[in-house]
């Protein structure tokens, strides 16, 4: 099992990812924004990406270490489930239950439950199941705990977002964390070995951020989906002072 450093207190945000680099691609902006606010953020990958077409375990671990620094994570772990077979055994929920009880995140991020990659979809599904079971005392060991919120991030399939997070201020560092995985991304078209290794995929990430950002009038946005409604103590848009001058383009209003 891979570690960064021991946890001495609960984390605020925990991202569940199927493979190394998924958190960077799907929710890296949220992790950076949260870390910038002084919150403790962590990532738990379900696999080591051992069946990836490109790279090997040693190279991917070195890339992962660099990306961890760029994302300002307080903790990063691998739960050692089998790559390409996530969710094929009910026991796959058990290590997620254990890490939730240990790290006790307020917010859990997980892939959206419909995605072209079976591992991504399964990771989102069993993360939700494990979040519920982590609060059931008769399941597993350790003190029961259930995250306050679960938000799903986008990997491939677009979603109708519940909210869009403004990640404009951290976009360059977010993309630097993606590009830390040199074995996976950033190759020229002539060197491209997989559908996501060439420049078109990186362009897609930027275009997607532009698209979702335009929904809320910011330059770069990261979409999230909540299965249920979100609690609000104030109408959205009323927090902070009134904006002065022209506002950014918004596709809905």
Describe what you observe in this structure.
With 253 residues, the chain is α/β, with parallel strands linked by helices. The chain has one domain: Rossmann fold. Helices cover 33% and strands 13% of the residues. It contains 6 helices and 7 strands. The protein has a 7-stranded mixed sheet, sandwiched between helices. Helix 2 runs antiparallel to helix 5. The radius of gyration is 18 Å and the shape is globular.
Tell me the distance between the termini.
48 Å
Give the overall form: globular
Return Rg in Å. 18 Å
Provide the helix percentage.
Answer: 25-40%
Count up the helices. Answer: 6
| CATH level-1 class | Alpha Beta
Query: How many strand elements?
Result: 7
Helix vs. strand class: alpha/beta
How many separate domains?
Answer: 1
**Weakly predicted, low-confidence segments:** 1-5
Level-2 CATH architecture:
3-Layer(aba) Sandwich
Query: Looking across the biggest beta sheet, what order are the strands in?
Result: 3-2-1-4-5-7-6
Q: Can you identify the CATH superfamily?
A: LmbE-like
What about the largest sheet? Answer: 7 strands, mixed
Examine the coordinates and then state which fold CATH places here, giving the name of the CATH topology.
Answer: Rossmann fold
Element pattern in H and E: EHEHEHEHEEHHE
Share of β-strand residues? 5-15%
Average pLDDT, rounded to a whole number, is 90
């Amino acid at each position: 099992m891979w570690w960064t450093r021991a946890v001495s207190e609960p984390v605020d945000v925990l991202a569940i990812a199927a493979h190394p680099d998924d958190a960077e691609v799907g929710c890296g902006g949220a992790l950076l924004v949260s870390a910038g606010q002084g919150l403790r953020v962590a990532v738990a990958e379900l696999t080591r990406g051992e069946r990836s077409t490109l790279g090997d375990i040693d190279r991917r671990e070195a890339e992962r270490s660099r990306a961890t620094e760029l994302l300002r994570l307080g903790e990063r772990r691998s739960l050692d489930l089998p790559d390409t077979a996530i969710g094929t055994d009910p026991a796959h929920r058990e290590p997620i239950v254990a890490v939730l009880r240990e790290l006790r995140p307020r917010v859990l991020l997980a892939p959206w439950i419909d995605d072209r990659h079976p591992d991504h979809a399964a990771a989102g599904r069993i993360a939700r199941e494990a979040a519920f079971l982590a609060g059931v005392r008769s399941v597993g060991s350790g003190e029961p705990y259930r995250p306050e919120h679960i938000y799903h991030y986008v990997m491939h399939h677009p979603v109708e977002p519940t909210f869009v997070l403004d990640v404009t201020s951290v976009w360059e560092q977010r993309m630097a964390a993606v590009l830390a995985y040199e074995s996976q991304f950033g190759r020229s078209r002539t060197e491209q070995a997989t559908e996501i290794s060439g420049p078109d995929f990186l362009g897609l990430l930027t275009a997607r951020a532009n698209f979702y950002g335009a929904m809320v009038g910011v330059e770069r946005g990261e979409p999230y989906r909540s299965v249920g409604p979100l609690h609000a103590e104030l109408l959205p848009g009323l927090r902070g002072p009134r904006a002065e001058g022209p506002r950014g383009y918004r596709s809905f209003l």
